[in-house]
Design a protein that fits this description.
The protein is mostly beta strands. The chain is flat. The two termini are 50 Å apart. The strands form eight sheets. It has a six-stranded mixed β-sheet with strand order 2-20-19-18-12-15, with no helix packed on it. It has a five-stranded mixed β-sheet with strand order 1-17-16-13-14, with no helix packed on it. A five-stranded antiparallel β-sheet has the order 3-6-5-8-9, with no helix packed on it. Helix content is 0%, strand content 49%.
Length: 451
């Protein structure tokens, strides 16, 4: 059971994401934020309105949110919201959203000059792909939430999804005999509606029909006093469900609800230069290996796997009884990973990376992995095409075996990648010309020569 709450027990903490990477702490005019108790906001004198901002653009990078020209939130990522922020309702305010593009932030929405009515909650959602991104604004009166109730507002923020009906029912209820919360299309909103706190199941179907179910949350708990913004956003991860649900409460606690059938994605890379073809066997199932045969330096496509715990064995493809490497993996729903078999055969080991497949329209992402066991630490240079590394510092210095750079954002264009021994300017690999494209996600692995 997954829990949506402003006060989360430890068991639910894993689904909560940080809403922001930085705050403007209320030194500017007309609004306030603090790290204190409660909802974290400074009280404002006089009439106030509440404003929340959500990032729902599926191919946009993380964004900065500016109020009255001041940075209020940085690094607000896809599916995340700010929570409800107090604003002085006696003056107008400007709102701007900047995309964190390579080089410098780019304003993609605003600045919008807005007046706010006291005792009103405003929601600004950045919706649509980057090519047509825009603000969608909703408002409703600010009223107390009755004891034992949870307030829910549902948004359709998935540009590729059709018009849908949304059912919020007791778990397992028959949809054919249930009334939907409502029907809406992209950029629409349902509610807010106050529901008795407790266990529910959220299901989404084509508009006006009880089937097929396009999204099923499974059993969730609506917690007393929570004021939830639930956005049906485009699914950019594993699985066939067209949407997932991004949730943020009034205090900025973010959650992600996946369809109950969401798998985990796992890719396998053979990076042992002196090893034969290998099999990868999950939980002792030698009759049906996860990977029947993989030769150096090849890799599989992403394999869609049931979430859960696995015991993984790597064996020679022609002798599945000879276990070269054992490890345990716990694959979470919606996660995406690569498992590398690395090292010389005599000292074979695992490398497990966290991947993703949300492509960002305004940048390329490049990760470089040190997978060469015969090399010591290396310096990695990613330079403009044709540039001489003699007078520049390494882009990544002292990278050791099995370490990596992480996915880093680059502007689209032509680059050279050069590897040297740490502290040296003599290329060991490269310069290798690479062309990076917007929306591209690239992983490069430095490896030993075959044998």
């Amino acid at each position: 059971m997954r829990r949506l709450s402003k006060m989360l027990p430890p068991a639910a903490a894993a689904i909560i994401l940080s809403a922001c990477g930085g705050y403007y702490h209320g030194n500017g005019p007309g609004y306030g934020h603090s790290n204190g108790p409660g909802n974290g906001y400074l009280p404002l004198p006089g009439p106030q309105a509440l404003l929340e901002v959500m990032h729902a653009s599926p191919d946009a990078p993380p964004v900065n949110v500016l109020f009255d020209g001041n940075l209020a939130y940085s690094n607000l990522d896809y599916r995340q919201g700010t929570g409800q922020i107090p604003l002085d309702a006696t003056v107008s305010h400007t709102i701007a959203i900047q995309a964190q593009t390579p080089g410098a932030p780019t304003t993609v929405i605003g600045p919008l000059s807005e007046s706010f009515t006291a005792n009103t909650v405003y929601t600004i959602v950045a919706e649509g792909p980057v090519a047509s991104i825009g603000p969608v604004v909703f408002s409703h009166p600010q009223t107390p939430i009755a004891p034992s109730m949870t307030r829910v507002q549902v948004l359709h923020a998935a540009p590729a999804a059709p018009s849908v009906s949304v059912y919020v029912t007791t778990p397992g209820a028959n949809l054919a005999s249930s009334a939907p919360l409502g029907t809406f299309s992209f950029k629409g909103s349902l509610g807010p509606t106050d529901l008795p706190s407790g266990q529910y199941e959220i299901r989404v179907t084509p508009a006006g029909a009880a089937s097929p179910v396009l999204f099923d949350s499974g059993t969730i708990a609506l917690v007393v006093g929570a004021d939830l913004l639930l956005a049906a956003v485009q699914n950019t991860g594993p699985g066939t469900a067209p949407i997932e649900i991004a949730s943020v409460d009034q205090n900025g606690n973010n959650s992600r609800l996946l369809d109950v059938s969401t798998p985990a994605n796992l890719r396998v890379v053979h990076d042992v230069a002196d090893a034969p073809a290998v099999s990868v066997i999950a939980s002792g199932n030698t009759a049906s290996p996860l990977v029947p045969s993989l030769t150096y330096p090849n890799f599989t496509a992403y394999l869609s796997e049931t979430p859960g715990a696995y015991d993984i064995a790597v064996t020679p493809a022609n002798n599945t009884g000879d276990i070269l490497l054992n490890l345990s993996l716990n694959l979470r729903a919606g996660s995406q990973h690569t498992f590398y078999a690395v090292g010389p055969l005599a000292n074979i080991g695992p490398l497990f990376t966290v991947d993703h497949n949300r492509r960002i329209a305004t940048q390329a992402e490049l990760r470089i992995i040190h997978g060469s066991p015969s090399a010591g630490p290396v310096d990695i240079y990613v330079t403009a095409s044709g540039a001489n590394i003699a007078s520049v510092s390494p882009t990544y210095a002292g990278v050791t075996f099995t370490s990596d750079t992480g996915f880093q954002a680059f502007a689209a264009g032509a680059y050279d990648v050069t590897l040297t021994a740490a502290g040296s300017k003599t290329p060991a690999i490269g310069p290798v010309p690479v062309t990076l494209k917007d929306s591209g996600i690239y992983t490069a692995v430095a490896r030993d020569a075959a044998g």
